[in-house]
Design a protein that fits this description.
By secondary structure, this protein is α+β, with helices and mostly antiparallel strands. 20% of the residues lie in helices and 41% in strands. The protein has helices at 5-15, 67-82, and strands spanning 22-24, 35-45, 51-61, 87-88, 93-109, 115-127. A 6-stranded mixed sheet has the order 1-2-3-6-5-4. Strand 4 and strand 5 form a beta hairpin. The radius of gyration is 16 Å and the shape is elongated. The mean pLDDT is 91.
């Protein structure tokens, strides 16, 4: 079964009214800024139950010298995801919560003085169907 958490999170954010330019898993070279990149960077799975903890990095890159906007964008995203209740995403799985792994932080600028901020979150996904030998939680 296919699950692409970065794509799902971008859809959640768009559904909640966040209208930024988004990239899924990889920023494009010809991107205009500001832009948000959402990527999966790891996670874990329960060995018995069909519940996955997925680690996501949400990276905001501002326009040249646009640090304030880049940082503000991540705080808006953080607040939307922390307020999410269960979201049925397909007949097969649902997102049940988002937690902060590390809050918004400045990580520097690129060669063109575009500021970069990052937010790391954990998404919990419950499967409604068996996944291999793992059973649905509900």
């Amino acid at each position: 079964m296919e699950i692409i958490p970065a794509r799902d999170v971008v859809q959640i954010l768009r559904d909640e009214g966040i209208t930024n330019r988004f990239w899924i898993n990889q920023e494009q070279e010809d991107t205009t800024y500001p832009a948000i990149t959402v990527r999966r960077y790891g996670g874990s799975a329960n060995p018995r139950w069909a519940r996955d903890q997925i680690l996501l990095q949400i990276r905001s890159k501002g326009d040249t010298f646009g640090a304030e906007q880049a940082e503000t964008d991540l705080y808006k995203i953080r607040d939307v995801l922390l307020g999410v209740s269960t979201i049925d995403f397909s007949p097969n799985y649902e997102y049940v919560r988002f937690l902060i792994v590390s809050d918004v932080q400045y990580i520097g600028t690129d060669d063109d003085n575009k500021p970069i901020f990052t937010l790391n979150m954990e998404a919990t996904v419950d499967w409604k169907v068996p996944v291999g030998n793992r059973l649905p939680i509900n």
